[in-house]
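Entry 12.
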Amino acid sequence: MIGRIVEIADDRRHLFLSRGFMVVQDTEGQRKELGQVPLDDIAAVIANAHGLSYTNNLLIALAERCAPFVLCAANHNAAGMLLPIEGNFQQAKRFDAQLAASQPTIKRLWADIVKSKLQQQATALEAANVASIPLSSLVRKVRSGDPDNFEAQGARRYWSLLFGDDFRRDQQSTGLNSMLNYGYTVLRATTARAVVAAGLHPTMGLHHSNQGNAMRLVDDLMEPFRPMIDLKVWQLHKQGESSITPESKRALVRTMYDDMQTNVGVTPVIVCTQKLAISLAQIFIGEKDKLDLPLPGLPLNLASALQDE
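Predicted 3D structure (tokens):
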């Protein structure tokens, strides 16, 4: 299912439920209605304003549809996320299987995710006309569980190759970092919805282990898709964007609808996250052996845009 990612970025807004729609209302003057969005069309709501108000009925309706309500901090990172308690009719069965998964299985799955991420990072570098050999050469070295931490080794090389030697990835920084934060927030919400809808528990991760992180599995599964955000930020920067603007936000949200290469043809990123989460659930309950990961290659919409530049 492909839904709409809706961002509310103006403080002077009130959100409420009316006859199956999320209604956006101005809170000043005559409290004019500004628009409506069908609830069944919403994939996630990004609350990126600090004077925003909303009704409890709306939050319940979104949760019933597995549509995350994401609360953003000043740095555009997700500070909180409202998710449903029940997301799948086999949820209890899948929770039990997820909890019972063996360490060898978990390590094998994490290695596959790391390989996919490195391959996608190499693809992003190729699109940016940067040598991708430093990343590509790491893929075949990744062992079960990635004990050598090639994911981190790849990241250290990747950022300087993509954005230059002076760039440092810092979630609290501005500029390109704030654009990356926002893009990752959209991706995280998209992946969280996929995880819950697949009947998996978002806290029980494969690799991420921070005890204060309630989204460890979400952060695991979004790794192969991060380079799509990175490359979009690189493209925006090349076009003169250097900070978060309404235009850059829209461009980053649209990345979720770009087509990626898969074993069954081209598929939007948002659907690829769903297929990955479902395949993980199927592995846990013994119905599948391998994760449905995207194939190396640019989203086709982005590849076309880069060729036109």
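Annotation: The longest helix spans residues 103-127. The chain has two domains: 4-67, 91-308.
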